[in-house]
Amino acid sequence: MTDALPTLPQTDGFPRWTRYVAVGDSFSEGLWDPYPVDADAAGTVEDAVQRGWADRLADTLSARRVAAGQAPLEYANLAIRGRLLRPIIDEQVPLALATRPDLVSLVGGGNDVLRPGVDVDDISQALEDAVVRIQASGADVLLGAGFKSGGALSVIRGKVGQYNSNIWSIAQRHGAYVLDLWGMRSLFDLRLWADDRIHLVPEGHDRVKDAALVALGLEPENAAYDVPLDPAPQIPLVDRARAEAQWTREYVLPWVRRRLTHTSSGDGRAAKWPEPTRWPRA
Questions:
Q1: Are 106 and 137 a contacting pair, CB within 8 Å?
Q2: CB within 8 A of 248, min separation 6: which ones?
Q3: Coil, strand, or helix at residue 230?
Q4: Angle between helices 52-67 and 202-215 (to 10 degrees)
Q5: Number of neighbours of residue 22 by Cβ within 10 angstroms
Q6: N or C: which end of the chain has fewer CB within 10 A?
């Protein structure tokens, strides 16, 4: 255990990690960023294999290793949509450690914070215990601070802020890296979010990939990743009200029904990339 933040992980100009495993929920699974070919074949975009920021990060890390004459990165993604933090830790982290990674991204807790009555300090302690466990294996850890929600979701901003404060403290104590989603100005724009308002569109995932590179002490591919979009045209009040009603019907009410029936959008789903593979996949 150390109070020092990690040094930049550069080795002769290329990322030093050889095996990266992502664990988490829909954010790390990459929801609403489907692979184009799979999206064409799938019944719905949601059914397609999702790409997301973690796959994009693996793309960049591997490409930089190969460009420096090193072996490609090996990568697995165990994240499954709808997962709460404790199942992520109890189910996914042991599988990740069994593959002996040297980098693990552990980003979760958003589904917990959405639920009334969540004990933020309790899930934060579970997160810290997981960080200690992962680091004891010799792997580095990338955490993720929660988004600064707007609109109807601004009611959870206080809980997210509390959770983020704990995440930064955990990172300081143990030398973990932090993907600062809260601080990304560009994400405070609904045009980077899917219709459900809790998942990103492909451009949003790509910007987060660059933020992850910066969090790891590496150069982003797009230096302007956090530059806000040009101002959006004003939407008439009646159209905004109509959009709010549609969002409630299509996304809020189904979410409430799943809570009442104790079901999850990830029930019956398996991890998309369960075994470390030389990246990118053939």
A1: no
A2: none
A3: coil
A4: 50
A5: 31
A6: C
Asked if residues 52 and 28 have their Cβ atoms less than 8 Å apart, the reply is yes
Token digits for 40? 């064409």
Element holding 141 (H helix, E strand)? strand 140-145
- The H-or-E segment that residue 177 falls in is strand 177-180
Q: Pairing between strand 273-278 and 177-180?
A: unpaired
Check residue 173 and give left, alpha or beta (phi > 0: left; psi -120 to 50: alpha): alpha
Alpha carbons 137 and 68: distance in angstroms, whole number: 27
What values do phi and psi take at 200, rounded to 5?
-90, 155
Residues in a beta bridge with 93:
none
Q: Name the residue type at position 279.
A: W
| Cβ–Cβ < 8 Å for 74, 276 | yes
74-77/19-24 β-pairing: parallel
What type of residue is 258?
Answer: R
Q: List the one residue out of 130, 181, 182, 194 whose CA is nearest residue 158.
A: 182
d(CA 63, CA 67): 6
Mean pLDDT, each 10-residue run in order, the chain (282 residues):
41 83 98 81 75 98 97 98 97 98 98 93 98 98 92 84 98 98 92 87 97 98 93 78 71 65 80 97 82
